[in-house]
Amino acid sequence: MEIIETSLAGVKIVEPQVFADERGFFLETWQLTRYKRALAFSAGLEFVQDNHSRSARGVLRGMHFQQRCPQGKLVRAARGEIYDVVVDIDPVSVTFGEWIGVHLSEKNHRQLWIPPGYAHGFQVLSDSADVEYKCTDYYVPTDQCGVAWNDPQLAITWPLEDPLVSEQDGQWPTLEQLQNHNRERVTP
């Protein structure tokens, strides 16, 4: 397994070892000891939930996060291809407002480790894609938050124009609006 560091602290690309021949292939998508060490999991961080989504070409899901129960995610495209995006939403971070994008596909077998505290989303580039991801905390519907996928301040370069976005994902605030809202909540 090869680990590739990114410009966002703790966000890593995993290139697992793939054993392929004329019959097909085999790879490990998670192995507790090896992955925890390679991804530098902090004490007490464990996966508690696995998710699987199937989406059609052009679907854009994101940019999601949970505020009180942040989820770390290990993401992979089990079928098809996606453009996976991570945004630093921590206002005290030196990379606040920066993002990275990574192609994940059934052909490159890459995984993306996203520690708790980042916003995450993806766009489907193939006819359809099955995306599987392990989460370090449970999904809490009342804690679900997001940042606008088309926030001009973030200026994310999505590969496909005119994405298919859910009504909810189309209504998330910009990063600036989110930051102003959070400041108002803590001001006495």
Report on the structure:
The model has no long low-confidence stretch (mean pLDDT 94). The protein is globular and about 55 Å long. The protein has one domain: Jelly Rolls (Sandwich). It starts with a strand and ends with a helix. The chain is mainly beta and 188 residues long. Keywords: Isomerase. Pathway: Carbohydrate biosynthesis; dTDP-L-rhamnose biosynthesis. This is dTDP-4-dehydrorhamnose 3,5-epimerase.
Which properties best describe this structure?
188 residues, Jelly Rolls, RmlC_Cupin_sf
Mean pLDDT: 94
**Top-tier CATH class:** Mainly Beta
Q: What is the radius of gyration computed over CA atoms, rounded to a whole number of angstroms?
A: 17 Å
For the biggest sheet, the summary is: 6 strands, antiparallel
Biggest sheet: strands side by side, in what order? 1-2-10-7-12-5
Task: Provide the structure class.
Answer: mainly beta
Count of DSSP H/I helices? 2
Q: And the CATH topology? A: Jelly Rolls
Beta-strand percent range: 35-45%
The beta-strand count equals: 13
Protein name: dTDP-4-dehydrorhamnose 3,5-epimerase
Pfam families: dTDP_sugar_isom
Function: Catalyzes the epimerization of the C3' and C5'positions of dTDP-6-deoxy-D-xylo-4-hexulose, forming dTDP-6-deoxy-L-lyxo-4-hexulose.
Subunit structure: Homodimer.
